[in-house]
Each structure stands twice: as structure tokens, then as C-alpha cells.
Amino acid sequence: MIVIYGIRHRLDPVKARLSEVIHECMMSVLGMPEDKRAHRFMPMDAEDFYAPGGRSDAYTVIEINMMAGRTAETQKALIKRLFAEIERQVGIAPVDVEITLTEQPPHGWGFRGMTGDEARDLAYRVRV
């Protein structure tokens, strides 16, 4: 599950493209399948979205929640790929992008009526 926050007037016009870019990165770095996209956009009014100093109104926060198992090198590769591709394809500078990866143990995920540690039919590998 990926949640993307930003100021409404900046996020709304780019959210479809941003979703494509994020998913392309997830597929290329993590091996996620084409149909495994769970993105939630949270456009906010400027008065509800405070940013650190030195950021523009394009400041965007991307929270990626995933099952534990990816190596530190894989996680870093994903973050770096996201920075590069978001800048190249969406035009948001890396200084205006904040990315957090949060891992939960497979037993802490619930989908399709089971927990992640019970799933035996995932179309992707978690340990990469």
C-alpha cells in the first residue's frame, strides 16, 4: 500500500502520471506485477500541509508500506530510483520529495481473507 500526500493544486494534476512512475519503479526494482498497484492519494489544502524549510509547494510525501523481507540494498535502490524517475518524468525535484518505507512482518498484513504469512500464491517475491 502506498499513500501519497501533497498540496491539492499541485498533486491533482500529476497524480495519474505519478502513480505510473511509482508503479514502474516498484515493478523494476521489486519485481511487483503489473496488476499489483495499491495507491492512495491524499491531496490536501495548503493550510493543512506543512513542509520543512527549503521546499516548494510541489513538496510530496510518499509512504510505502510493505511486507518485510527486502534487503537494505534493494530498499535504497527503490528510493533512489523513485527520486530519479519522479524528477525525470513528473518534474518534481528530489528536494521536494520525501519517501518512507515501512515494513511489517507478513503476519501483520491481511488481504484476501488471510494473513501475509499464510499466502502461498503471491505473484512476486518478497525476499529480494
Briefly say what this structure is:
This protein is α/β, with parallel strands linked by helices and 128 residues long. It contains three helices and six strands, in the order βααββαβββ. Strand 5 and strand 6 (114-115) form a beta hairpin.
SSE inventory with pairings:
Elements: E1 2-7, H1 8-11, H2 15-30, E2 39-44, E3 60-67, H3 72-90, E4 97-104, E5 110-111, E6 114-115
Parallel strand pairs: 1-2, 3-4
Antiparallel strand pairs: 1-3, 5-6
Helix pairs in contact: 2-3
Account of the protein in words:
InterPro entries: Tauto_MSAD, Tautomerase/MIF_sf. This is Tautomerase family protein. It holds the Pfam family Tautomerase_2. The protein has 128 residues and is of the alpha/beta class. It has a single domain, classed as Macrophage Migration Inhibitory Factor, CATH 3.30.429. Helix content is 30%, strand content 25%. The chain has three helices and six strands; from the N terminus they run βααββαβββ. It has helices at 8-11, 15-30, 72-90; strands at 2-7, 39-44, 60-67, 97-104, 110-111, 114-115. The strands form two sheets. The chain has a four-stranded mixed sheet. Strands 5-6 form a two-stranded antiparallel ribbon. α3 links the parallel β3 (60-67) and β4. The longest helix is centred in the middle third of the chain and has 19 residues, at 72-90. It is globular. The model has no long low-confidence stretch (mean pLDDT 93).
